[in-house]
Design brief:
The complex is a heterodimer of chains A (about 110) and B (about 110). Chain A has about 110 residues and is mainly beta. Chain A contains no helices and 11 strands. The chains are: A mainly beta (about 110), B mainly beta (about 110). At the A-B interface, strand 4, strand 5, strand 9 and strand 10 of A face strand 4 and strand 8 of B.
């Protein structure tokens, strides 16, 4: 199993540009989510999904869109990048149910100038 | 989900046991206690979780007090590679649980030679 993979590893955007962060998992997990981590801070939940076709907002959803067309993939779209979105983005997945651990990807470091 | 309180930082000598405390005084009966760690900006890594009983795995032990209002993560023989931020999270366990994790600031554990 490759686990949770994220691409790209690094990205620099100019203000106003759009882009998609990719996340994929090969563990047949129902639950997938996106977090952002700003320097010196804990992780904050952006969006999550409990299955294909189902998404919901987390703590900090503004400026981001998600979709879940397959179980494996959960892309995160930045519609119009802003410097405040400079952060490290982590994708995670797990089986549904409170007693299952989540697996995290290696992260995407995004800088918006 | 209940809120958790952890010390901001701790030191531990290499080879000694590291005991990381966590207070969760508002925990309810169906909430699990989870521990994750994050090593130098990598994706968080699951360590262990428990409901009532003490738990042990190849990485650590989790001691939960009888009233469940606090817990301690024990790394029995800390190594330099255990230097990381450790997060204590409580989460409801139901079959329909969405899997959301709410991260606090965590405890920065520094293992010293």
């Amino acid at each position: 199993n490759a686990g949770v993979t994220q691409t790209p590893k690094f990205q620099v955007l100019k203000t106003g540009q759009s882009m998609t962060l990719q996340c994929a998992q090969d563990m047949n997990h129902e639950y997938m989510s996106w977090y952002r981590q700003d320097p010196g801070m804990g992780l904050r939940l952006i969006h999550y999904s409990v299955g294909a076709g189902i998404t919901d907002q987390g703590e900090v959803p503004n400026g981001y869109n998600v979709s879940r067309s397959t179980t494996e993939d959960f892309p995160l779209r930045l519609l119009s990048a802003a410097p405040s979105q400079t952060s490290v983005y982590f994708c995670a997945s797990s089986y549904l149910g409170g007693s299952y651990e989540q697996y995290f990807g290696p992260g995407t470091r995004l800088t918006v100038t | 989900d209940a809120k958790t309180t952890q010390p901001t930082s701790m030191d531990c000598a290499e080879g000694r046991a590291a005991n990381l405390p966590c207070n969760h005084s508002t925990i309810s009966g169906n909430e699990y206690v989870y521990w994750y760690r994050q090593i130098h900006s990598q994706g968080p890594q699951y360590i262990i979780h428990g409901l009532k009983n003490n738990e042990t795995n190849e990485m650590a032990s989790l001691i939960i007090t009888e009233d469940r209002k606090s817990s301690t993560l024990i790394l029995p023989h800390a190594t330099l590679r255990d230097t990381a931020v450790y997060y204590c999270i409580v989460r409801v366990s139901t079959s329909s649980n969405t899997g959301k994790l709410i991260f606090g600031q965590g405890t920065t554990l520094q293992v010293k030679p």
